[in-house]
Design brief:
By secondary structure, the chain is of the alpha+beta class. The protein has a single domain, classed as Alpha-Beta Complex (Nucleoside Triphosphate Pyrophosphohydrolase). The chain is about 20% helix and about 35% strand. α3 packs antiparallel against α4. The protein is globular and about 55 Å long. About 20% of the residues are buried.
């Protein structure tokens, strides 16, 4: 019996793209209490309603996480210790990553929210209602794990496709406190 593999190889001379979702999860303002509902805010940095991306010429020795760190340091002055990067997937010549920012610097803090700005680069805030049922859901990691299990129709554009927020929340949960 023969097994066929359908592998899609792309031309290595073709330009590649690194798409990355920059996420900031602000710490809760109040201590979380049991049997109360809270608004959980997640901020995502967008460029014209899409995620940030870099076009690169492909070579075999490219370190994508290094390029993302370099971009964030040079353009947004984010320290390496204040960001975590997770590979999400590859789609052809698109390499998708999530960047979690632990602490906002003054440059990122001055970017306006998309509601009150016409700028190209904006923060978009997403809110989810989450009820703290017991003491174990007082940590952000567990809250985002739970949010990733809920089907959420809202999403953002990534490679001309919509990615649901619950998938993003799953990657955020993996990066928090690692």
């Amino acid at each position: 019996m023969k097994i066929r593999l359908n592998l899609n190889f792309h031309d290595s001379k073709e330009a590649h793209y690194i798409n990355f979702i920059v996420v900031y999860v602000p710490p809760p303002l109040l201590p979380l209490q049991e049997n109360k509902s809270y608004l959980i805010r997640t901020n995502i940095l967008l460029n014209k309603d899409s995620v940030l991306n870099l076009k690169i010429e492909h070579s075999k020795k490219v370190k994508y996480k290094y390029l993302i760190r370099k971009y964030m340091k040079e353009n947004w002055k984010v320290k390496v210790k204040d960001m975590k990067i997770k590979h999400m997937n590859n789609k052809g010549v698109n390499h998708n990553y999530l960047v979690l920012i632990d602490k906002l610097n003054s440059r990122l803090r001055n970017i306006k929210n998309c509601i009150n700005s016409a700028d190209d680069i904006t923060w978009r805030s997403f809110y989810e209602i989450f009820k703290i049922e017991n003491n174990k859901y007082r940590e952000n990691k567990l809250i985002y794990n739970k949010l990733s299990e809920i089907e959420i129709s809202t999403g953002i554009m990534l490679n001309n496709k919509k990615i649901q927020l619950n998938k993003i929340y799953g990657f955020v949960a993996n990066l928090i406190n690692n």
